[in-house]
Amino acid sequence: MKKIGFIGLGTMGLPIATNMITAGYDLFIRDLSRAPVEILVEKGATECSSGKEVAEQSEVVFIIVPNDKNVEDALFGECGLSEGLKAGSSVIDMSTIDLIRSREFAERLRLIGVNFLDAPVSGGPSGAVAATLSIMVGGDEAVFDSIKEVLQSIGKSVIYCGPCGLGLAAKMANNLIASAQMVAISEALCLAIKAGICPDALYEVLKTATANSTILNMKVPAYLKNNYDPGFKLALMCKDLNIITNVAKRLGTPTLVGSLVEQVYNMCKEEHGEKDSGAVSLFYQEQANVSFKSKINS
Predict the structure, then answer these.
(1) pLDDT tens digits for range 128-175
(2) 8 Å CB contact between 28 and 48
(3) What angle, 0 to 180 degrees and rounded to 10, lies between the N-to-C axes of helices 214-224 and 166-195?
(4) Could you write out the DSSP letters of every residue in 214-271?
(5) 171 is catalytic
(6) What is the pTM of this model?
């Protein structure tokens, strides 16, 4: 497999597509923004005028866009992928969307003989650049096996999760845990710092205690630097939490923590939506009138 289509060249899509080119794949690309298209064309990609043309040129097509409406438009909109996809070809959707909608898309493509995998990713822009993403995949296992080598060119961990939708189920679990941790960390830091401990000393304690975690070590150093530049935007985490709670209602599973975390994030969205998802901590700092900023050399 050499010819790959790619739809969606945003913060995640551009570095992922770049790594595919580096790995030797021929890319046929489509995006509404000119800048990433020009970057990839310079690296050897071929620009297409529509999703239909992308599909006509490709053996497998990757999509990574913000929401399920964008995925549906890319697949079934005017001059969309479905108009050019050949029977036996595959679509790999790396977007984080409602798993029930994803299953609907898979069924619509199955009826025209096209394979569909949901393959959301974790690791953020830095993981996309370094090709160290965690990729969780749902769909037909034989199709997964056929494109696994491509996925390994962009990710460090590539795990088959089961039938269609279960890659997204894994991603929902990941994002619920990560967002809940960011709220809990913000709340805990706020409490201890308000009591009088230096933020730097508090972090030294937490990173060597049972509270240590990947999220703690990813976010607190940024808090100490007062850095909320977006990796994964807070507004997108709000979108994911909305998906999580809606799917949970339809599946009949409790989301006591998830619903509360969703409320906290929604309170932050208007003011901090374009900042990093860790900017939920700013809500706590503002409410308690404290700062998580480092006291060393400040």
Answers:
(1) 999 999 999 999 999 999 999 999 999 999 999 999 999 999 999 999
(2) yes
(3) 50
(4) HHHHHHHHHHHTT----SSBHHHHHHHHHHHHHHHHHHT---HHHHHHHHHHHHHHHH
(5) yes
(6) 0.94
Q: What is the pLDDT of residue 167?
A: 98
| Tally of residues, the chain | 298
Q: Which stretches in the chain have pLDDT values below 70? A: 1, 297-298
Q: Which of 96, 134, 131, 94 is nearest to 214 (CA)?
A: 134
Distance CA 90, CA 158 (A): 17
Residue 27: beta bridge partners? 4
Domains of the chain: 3-164 (3.40.50.720), 172-288 (1.10.1040.10)
Distance CA 267, CA 249 (A): 21
CA angle 246, 251, 252 (to 5 degrees): 95
Task: Choose, from 171, 219, 233, 275, the residue flagged as catalytic.
Answer: 171
Task: Look up residue 61 and give its two tokens.
Answer: 């097509």
Instruction: Please name the helix (run of DSSP H) or strand (run of DSSP E) that holds residue 118, with its range, or none.
Output: strand 115-118
Backbone angles phi, psi at 23, to 5 degrees: -75, -5
pLDDT at residue number 213 = 97
Q: Could you give the C-alpha distances from 221 to 19, 202, 228, 236, 263, in angstroms and in order?
A: 28, 11, 11, 22, 25
Q: In this predicted structure, what is the pLDDT of residue 297?
A: 65
Return the residue matching tokens 């990813």. 218
| Both structure tokens of 128 | 């996309």
